[in-house]
Amino acid sequence: MIVPSRVLGLVRRLGPDALPAYVYDLGALDAHAAAIRAALPRSVEFYYAVKANPDARALRVLARHTDGFEVSSGGELEHAAAAVPDHPLAFGGPGKTADELAIALKAGTSRFHVESPHELAMLDASARAGGTQADVLLRVNPPGRSGGGQAQLVMGGKPSPFGMDLGLLRACAELLSRMDAVRLRGLHAHLASGLEADDLLAGARRLVEFGRDWCAAQGVRAPEFNLGGGMAVDYARPEALFGWARYGRGLARLARDGETLRIEPGRAVTAYCGWYLTRVLDVKRSHGEAFAVVAGGTHHLRTPAAKGHDQPCAVISVPDWTAPWPRPGVSAQAVTITGQLCTPKDVLARRVTVKRLRAGDVVAFGMAGAYAWNISHRDFLMHPPPAFHYLT
Ligand SMILES: *Cc1c(COP(=O)(O)O)cnc(C)c1O
Prior knowledge:
Lyase, Ornithine Decarboxylase, Chain A, domain 1, 12 helices, alpha/beta
């Protein structure tokens, strides 16, 4: 993959001994988020799913282009409220506790994505106790892939701990008719992750077509539909971005006056702005295959282990070699890049074809800005954490 000159310049300034390190290219993030916003119809609200990367400086950049942030825990809620104060927060995710709901109500959370009738009852009680009201979207169990309309919504959904099927939605409607501290504002559905524009649009259409009737039956005026995130990110083709323009045109066809459509992508927003830079510690052959062991590993960058892919990367050649013995390396061949952990799962990229790779060279892993550092089992083996740098 191509390493931007800004990142290359930073590597040269830092030197290999300062690695491993993460670099967040905030300038690139700013431009990317602006392009997403520009591809969406003005009426569509753009929230960012904080769990993809909660870095405070990234959140502040995203605040320029987004309408709000989706948080999935009390911890994320307090972090986002501090990092980007006065930005609307939507509180989603399974297993919300009574304490988290109370904190969220006090923080003025703008929307609650409710996962079950029990959670709805808890929220109502908490809001009543606090003398306030909560605005609610009910999270729907994602509809299936084929067909359309209400029947498919019921039949297509698979058993899942997330969201509610039609039976639970009905139970919520029954509860809502007797509650006065929660206001139903619409529905939410996060379909899956890694979907292309047409698949996301088909799901959105099913949710909205079902939701219009369902919300009208509950007396909801000006309903809102949160269409979730899950926009595809192709780690095998870093230059191929999600079809935001196509998606935006589809949403424009779906949108109606008097309704609000909202999206909450995470990965496709921040994945591209992050780099994990490290140095090669050793290169060797084993039973005919070449391996390069780098400083750090999947305890810093768990993404390839979590997703089962090869993290895209590039070699940055470092000429210096001062040891009196020969420099281990390979040229014009495939090499598997592993980390420092004592487990065969610590693989960052398999059989990468390199022109040359030697101990002491730098490897830059791209697409490390989402579900990367923050999902990594950082304490395993007690290696030092990476440094963090920002390009503005
Ligand atoms: C994880 C999640 C998102 C973001 O998903 P991406 O695949 O990162 O876009 C959005 N909404 C909900 C409810 C989620 O759980």
